[in-house]
Design brief:
Blueprint (H helix, E strand, L loop, with lengths): L9 E4 L7 H5 L6 E5 L3 H13 L5 E4 L6 H13 L4 E6 L1 H15 L24 E5 L11 E6 L4 E6 L7 E4 L9 H20 L5 H23 L4 H21 L3 H12 L4 H23 L5 H13 L6 H14 L15 H9 L13 H11 L13
Length: 396
Amino acid sequence: MDFEFATAQRIVFGAGKLQELPALAAGLGKKTAFITGRNAERIGPVFQLLKEAGTCPAAFSISGEPTSGRIATLAAQAREQGCDHVVAFGGGSVIDAGKAIAALLTNTRDLMDYLEVIGKGEPLTEDPAPCIAIPTTAGTGAEVTRNSVLLSPEHKVKVSMRHPRMLPTVALVDPELTLSMPPEVTASTGLDAFIQLFEAFVSKKANPLTDGICREGLRRVSRSLYRCYIHGDDIAARTDMAFGSLCGGLALANAGLGAIHGFAGPLGGMFNVPHGMVCAALLQATTRTNYDAMIQRDPQNPALDKFHEAARIMMQDENATIEQALEHLKGIAAQMFVPGLSEYGVSESDIPAIVEKARNASSMKGNPIVLTDEELASILEESLAPPVDGDATLYL
C-alpha cells in the first residue's frame, strides 16, 4: 500500500458555522481580497463579518465561468490594492477563482506559465496567500481541492492551474448557505457531486482512504439528492449534500476522476454548458462503456468490484445490480430534466474534436481503463439525446 493524501489545513463544517468567519479570518492578513459572485443580498452580511474581523475587505466579483484573462486581471488588481489573503464566497467557479488569485498574489509570473495543457504547467515557487473557501453550493468540493479550473476562450477548453500548495487554508462549509439554491442548481451541482464521488471511487489512482471517503459520500448523496431537489428547505438533506460534496472534493483531489470529467473540460470550453448537467448527460453512456470495456478486455480490473459496490450503495440494496443502478440513474436524470448534449449545440460533427481534446485532459488519466477513440465517440453519440425515463424508485 502506497499513497499520499492532502487537504485543506483546516475544515470547519456545520450549520451556522459562517458566524465563525471573523475569528477564522483574524490574523490571516491586513487586507482581504473578497471574491464573490453577484448576489448582493448574500454578499453584504459576509462583507460585514469580514469588517468585524478588521481585514479591510476589497470585493472582486466573478460572473459565470472564471476565464484565464479575468483571473489574471483580478489578481493584478488585488496586488495593487495590497491584498494579502483571500476569502472566496460562492459556488465552485468563485472558489476556483479565489484559489487561483491567492496563488497569483505571490506567484507573479504570467498565468500561462502555470496552466496545464495549454500552458507550461510549471509549479508554483511561492506559497499562495492564505485562502478561506466558503461554498454556497453542494457539488464541486472545490473548497478542498488543489486546483483551479479556468476557461480559456482562445483555446476553447477548460484547464487547471494545479499545485498541492493551492489547497485552501480553511474550508468553511455551512449547509445553511445552500438552502436558497433553486431546484435546477440543486440538480446540476448535486449530480456533479455524485459523479465526482463515483469517478474517484473507481479511479485507477484510488486508495483505501479515498475509498472510505467515497463510500460515505455516495451513501449520503444517494439518499438526499432527490430529497433536496423537491424539498429545498430540508436542512438534514442539505447537510448530507454539503458533506457529500466535501467528500467528493477530498477524494478527487487525491484519487483523480475519469472519462466523464475528461469530456467535461473540452465541452465546457467549446460550448456554453453548465458543468453538472453535462456530466450528468454523459453519466449513463460512460458508465456502461467503462463497465463493458473492463468485462471484455480486463476482467480482473479491481474497479469492477467497485462498480458493483457503488450500485449497492446507490440503491441502498445489497442485491442491487449494475443494470438496476443504470436504470435508476436514467430515471433520476429524467426527473431532474437533464438534457442531451445536443441541447447545448453539440452535434455529431463536433465529436472528433471533442475526443481529441478529451484525450489530453488530466481527468482522463484516472479512468479505470483506457478507452478507444471509437468508444469515446460512441459515448458522445449516445449522450446527444436526453435520457429516457427509467424504472427508478426515487428516494423521497
